[in-house]
Amino acid sequence: MAFDNVIGGIAQPLFLAMDNNFVTNRYFDQNTTGWLTTGGTLTRPARVNAYGEFMANHVSVAALESAYWEEDLGVAATDKKFLASFRAQSDQARDVLIEIIDDNDVVVVSDTFSIGILPKRILLYGDNIGTTLTQRIRLKIHSADSAVNGYIDFDHVFFSEVLQTIDLPLSSVQGGEPDKVKFEKIVQGKNELWNGEIQEFGKKWRPHYMGRWDHLEVVEEMQRQLIANAARIFVLPHRDTSFGFLGIWDKNIERKYSLNRYIGHRGTVPIMGIEYLLEFPADTVAEIIGVEQEI
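-> structure tokens emitted (295 positions)
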């Protein structure tokens, strides 16, 4: 995975160590097996815009009817974090309510998204720290917000627990070599002067962090192992971005990411099976990185 489209910011990249996808019928190639409803009708018609061949279609006739996927975690979901993502479209422009909720209707996170006739990627992230939750957690996809009649197509569903949120572990000075930041000069334009000198204008410097994972403190090594062994990884390249990458590590990660790899505004991460190039609002980014931010 390579990227080179971040404009500003200097913070370290952020990793979300993810569990496996709860949803075993994400493309609806098994009809609607595993999906339930609170009312309305759920079918899986063939759609031109489908990621594969089919999309799920939910139509509601009463307010707040929905389709949902339920996962039994085996333990209470209290203080856990979750991330859900899927593609959605409708028969017209409309607002839809998306929730992560337990089977007692205690809300972990909910938000309203605007969708239209073309597929749009939806991302929902959140936790409910300190609130008692059951062990059954649901991704609830409403076909409207609070309207009586609703209509939504959706597919390519990912729903999982966020095991840990970790900054890219950078090496400490204990290994004899401090953290490094490589700066790249960006020049917006040049002007050749009468005396042959080149005048540069619009000049700035972009930083690229370098993680040397051969010189890590104990805590950093524990974080590295957690990241390396996660079922899936969500990477937020910079705190000021509105996109992220969800995928799995390429094999031989121990060798490929052990030495001198820069990551930041421009760089590479050995992730394969990239599933999503996400675009999401700034308040979602603020929630993921754990800071308050005026939007």
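The longest strand covers residues 150-167.
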